[in-house]
Amino acid sequence: MSDEFAIKKVKGMEIIDSRGNRTIRTFVTIEKGISSFGDAPAGASKGSREALELRDSKGSVKPAVDAVNNYISTALSGLDVRRQREIDLTMIKLDGTENKSKLGANAMISTSIAIAKTAALGLGMDIFNYIGGGRSHSIPIPLLNILNGGLHAGNSLKIQEFLIIPVNFDKFSEALFAALDVYKTLKNLITERFGKIYTALGDEGGVAPPLEKTEDALDLVYTAIKNSGYEDKIFLGMDAAASDFYVDGEYEIDGSKKSPDDMIEYYANLANQYPIIYLEDPFDENDFKRFSILQSKLKNTIVTGDDLYTTNVKYLKKGIEEKSTKGVIVKPNQIGTLTETFQFFDLARENSIKTIISHRSGETEDNFIADLAVALNSDFIKTGAPARGERTSKYNRLLEIENNYCLEYKNKL
User: Fold this and answer.
1) Mutual orientation of helices 105-123 and 338-350 as an angle, nearest 10°?
2) Which pathway, per its entry (predicted)?
3) What is the extent of the structural domain holding 11?
């Protein structure tokens, strides 16, 4: 081991996220004098199988900070920062629980990210090149949440996210700037119909107009696409987050109650009416069977699991066996370390499942997931509307990577 890459110090602290809640930032310093940090984001809509965040009764993450400063710091002292897998496995062993309940997934993922970023900085490399190694890289297609419902908004919509997906462009910059046009057109439509007050932004930068039915939201977003002149280049997607409106065996949506089988027809009808190429968490997180039935019906739609899998290999294996989805959400904080994230991503890729590196609704200004998506050659990246600094930091990093490295942007459907 080269002493200059030995870990000298690991220190956690509390910071604030984009929702005004507290989260943890961990700094890693090596003997060479190089230091970087990692942040732990937090979700509002969480899968029940996600690894556990450590917080106290008042919402403070002091227990996670204490875990970093009192336990993780000692365990990692002197290890070579370039040995990501060894370091992550050391933390996993130190925690010793299935759901990271001793050290906390927030403590562990902030440290794991800081390790990777510090190693890259110490080697004088871009993070995506350090993590991705010698493979060729491309820019992922962005999924932009521009209209909010569910737990991300204060309206009556049950579907949590209405997404635009700029597919048919030659460059990422062209795709992103076209999405900006649609976003601005949507805000203008809302101002005209409901008043400017309803262009106020939700958790992920999307607007939340006073709508009640899914079709009303899809009509509005699709009109914005058409009015912007991108009908053949930008398509629609939805994140239902259906576990949040699944009550006593039924789905409460659009002012009525629907059975799980009713919901299959519900989504199929929407896909027939609108160019929906992406559908995330359409059913409760335990209903692998109906995910599979819906995916078999919607041949041209990427049915995707988030709460279904929670970035956990164990549940992805079940989804692969049942052919539940064509897509997976990848959220490092759901599992707790980058090493486990890589294992999950690789298993999806080996089984020809589309990958979506994703933010959380409670984010920070750290742009790490932009580098991660490029490093792993993810098919897509999901990081909110093109607004609010914690979202634009990721988009701006992708623009920077494209500009500096002339990476390819291509249709990955």
Assistant:
1) 90
2) Carbohydrate degradation; glycolysis; pyruvate from D-glyceraldehyde 3-phosphate: step 4/5
3) 3-125
